TrEMBL record:
It comes from the Bacteria. PANTHER family: ARAC FAMILY TRANSCRIPTIONAL REGULATOR, HTH-TYPE TRANSCRIPTIONAL ACTIVATOR RHAS-RELATED. Pfam families: Cupin_6, HTH_18. InterPro entries: AraC_lig, AraC_XylS_family_regulators, Homeodomain-like_sf, HTH_AraC, HTH_AraC-typ_CS, Tscrpt_reg_AraC-type_HTH. One of its GO terms (molecular function) is DNA-binding transcription factor activity. Residues 202-300 form the HTH araC/xylS-type domain. SUPFAM superfamilies: Homeodomain-like (SSF46689). This is AraC-type DNA-binding protein. Keywords: DNA-binding, Transcription, Transcription regulation. SMART domains: HTH_ARAC. Transmembrane segments: none annotated.
Length: 310
């Protein structure tokens, strides 16, 4: 699909939505704990709840079908239910991804997960989302998200053959639908997610993504976007949070990191493919952006991958 820059970036940063737990409960309840992952998400499959975490002014009310993404938060408190008596303490591990017999018409049904990213992804997506992103199911743009949640619930509560595989796939699609819906519902902070979905800047992004090795000038990019140099530069900086040519350099570095992770390409060849005049110029640019030389990066990533596989 031409110009699908969001998919390109998601592939480069290896983004994955991983379901990690959930529960169905009746009566008054609460769930509290620390957050150890960079990005967490919670989906209200059925019922209602209130979410509180550090860095926000007050609790967020979750309606049926709503999703909340927590970005760089350290603790979480979720509570819900009606009736008298003390609140029951529940955790996702209590019935981890098992909802046999749950009824989302009468139960509060909550599922949780994390957003896994590689190193490059953490530098991209963590800055592209606010500390807390509330995605409302009532919005017309969230129709696909509601459908993904429905399918997830059917798999988790149906105890059908192949359900574990289906849940993994639907978790991925749910994350994509959540981000698509959020882009349409909210004013995104300056960053990758916002610039990748900006239609006025799309023609310029098409050029940079299609031929990252070319020495693109501001005039070329502004002409493609049918804007003056000044208007284009100002809009790009406002939307992306950085100048166009800085974006181009960071796009090259994302491509370089993937090439170094996945293959045995020589550093000199990679420098040429990405438009650098010499291997040393590329290595210096890579070290400024990533914090280590290309070869050290490759060796460390390969070592980490070997340890994870053992």
């Amino acid at each position: 699909m031409t110009g699908d820059h969001l998919s390109e970036v998601f592939d480069l940063v290896e983004v994955r939505g991983v379901l990690s737990g959930g529960f169905a409960v009746r009566g008054l309840w609460q769930s509290c704990g620390t957050i150890n992952e960079s990005m967490k998400f919670f989906a209200m499959v059925g019922g209602r709840a209130r979410v509180n975490t550090n860095g926000i002014d007050g609790p967020i009310d979750l309606e049926p079908g709503d999703v909340v993404i927590l970005n760089g938060r350290s603790w979480l408190r979720v509570e819900g239910g009606t009736g008298d008596g003390p609140r029951r303490e529940v955790t996702p591990e209590e019935n981890e991804l098992r909802f046999i017999g749950a009824d989302r018409e009468t139960d509060d049904v909550l599922l949780g997960g994390r957003i896994d990213l590689n190193e490059a992804g953490r530098a991209v997506l963590l800055k592209a989302l606010p500390p807390v992103a509330h995605v409302r199911a009532s919005d017309a743009a969230a129709a696909n998200m509601r459908g993904s949640l429905d399918r997830l619930f059917e798999e988790m509560s149906g105890n059908r053959m192949g359900s574990a595989f289906a849940i993994r796939q639907y978790g991925q699609l749910l994350l994509l639908d959540v981000l698509r819906a959020y882009v349409n519902q909210a004013e995104l902070p300056p960053g990758w997610l916002r610039v990748l979905t900006d239609e006025r800047l799309r023609p310029a992004l098409d050029l940079m993504h299609a031929d990252p090795a070319k020495s693109w000038g501001l005039e070329d990019l502004a002409r493609a976007a049918a804007m003056s140099r000044t208007a284009f530069a100002e809009r790009f900086r406002t939307v992306a949070g950085l100048p166009p040519l800085t974006y181009l350099n960071r796009w090259r570095m994302l491509l370089a990191q993937k090439a170094l992770r996945d293959g045995d390409v020589r550093v000199g060849s990679l420098a040429t493919e990405l438009g650098y005049a010499s291997e040393s110029a590329f290595s210096n640019a890579f070290k400024r952006e990533v914090g280590e030389s290309p070869l050290r990066y490759r060796n460390r990533i390969r070592s980490d991958q070997s340890l994870a596989a053992s």
